[in-house]
Specification:
This protein is α/β, with parallel strands linked by helices. It is built from eight helices and 15 strands. The protein has two domains: 136 residues, 3-Layer(aba) Sandwich (Rossmann fold), CATH 3.40.50.2300; 90 residues, LytTr DNA-binding domain (OB fold (Dihydrolipoamide Acetyltransferase, E2P), Beta Barrel), CATH 2.40.50. Strands 2-1-3-4-5 form a five-stranded parallel sheet, with helices on both faces.
Length: 246
């Protein structure tokens, strides 16, 4: 028997999925959750094979919740129309159910999931999240895990980002937080007029720069309001000059 978790802030939507699941006795409903925080805890506790996940939810949305899971389960999305979500679903998701949906459409989604069980769901989900990150709603904040807590960081609170093996250090006034993304990802989704890749391993918020000093050969160093020092390569210096109008 496979465990299932429902994550949706609408009580009626959860009730409909529960009702439709009754036709599938091979699936055990382990938990139903009203937001992404509850959903994250339930996934960690029950390790479900499949989740039914809404996108637009309070606190953190469905995509942000998935980003916090190292090995996410298979996902069938249940959501209202969203342009970027649909692009992501069509490219990479197992299936998505546009509300309102009926039992027949629900059953087809489960059949599709059953057919895809042998595929690499983790890689598929990561590809989906990369596509979904192009949504404006996904690029104005960064959601990270801080121990057992979840931290939401508005992008304007970020001082700079630093490469750290398979993670990126997101530096803020409160210190740094680790995000399991690449520097290329952040370079792609952040506003290029606010964040500049000053060095192969650094992206800096230009609003934080107080001055740029020469530093060894053709390199420079950016001095931040916080006192932080961010390396600037020769190529990065050219990018900064262009954005700053120097």
């Amino acid at each position: 028997m496979s465990k299932v978790v429902i994550i949706d802030d609408e009580h009626l939507a959860r009730s409909i999925v529960k009702e439709y699941l009754q036709k599938h006795p091979q699936l055990e409903l382990a938990a139903e959750c009203a937001d992404g925080f509850e959903g994250l805890k339930a996934i960690q506790q029950y390790q479900p094979s499949l989740i039914f996940l809404d996108i637009q939810m309070p606190k953190i949305n469905g995509f942000e919740m998935l980003e916090l899971i190292e090995q996410p389960p298979a996902v069938i999305f249940t959501t209202a129309f969203d342009e970027y979500a649909i692009k992501a679903f069509e490219a990479h998701a197992i299936d998505y159910l546009l509300k309102p949906f009926n039992q027949e459409r629900f059953d087809r989604a489960l059949m599709k999931w059953s057919d895809h069980k042998s595929t690499d769901g983790d890689a598929t989900t990561k590809e989906l999240l990369e596509t979904a990150s192009l949504s404006p709603a996904q690029s104005n904040r960064v959601v990270v895990k801080n121990g057992s807590k979840i931290k939401i960081i508005p992008v304007h609170d970020i001082y700079y980002l630093e490469a750290a093996d398979d993670y990126v250090k997101v530096h803020t006034q409160e210190g740094y937080f680790l995000k399991n993304k690449t520097m290329s990802h952040f370079e792609h989704v952040l506003d290029g007029q606010q964040f500049v890749r000053s060095h192969r391993s650094y992206i800096v918020n230009i609003q934080q720069i107080t001055r740029i000093d020469p530093y060894e050969k053709d390199n420079h160093i950016a001095i931040l309001r916080s006192g932080g020092r961010v390396p600037v390569s020769r190529g990065g210096y050219g990018k900064l000059k262009a954005v700053l109008g120097l």
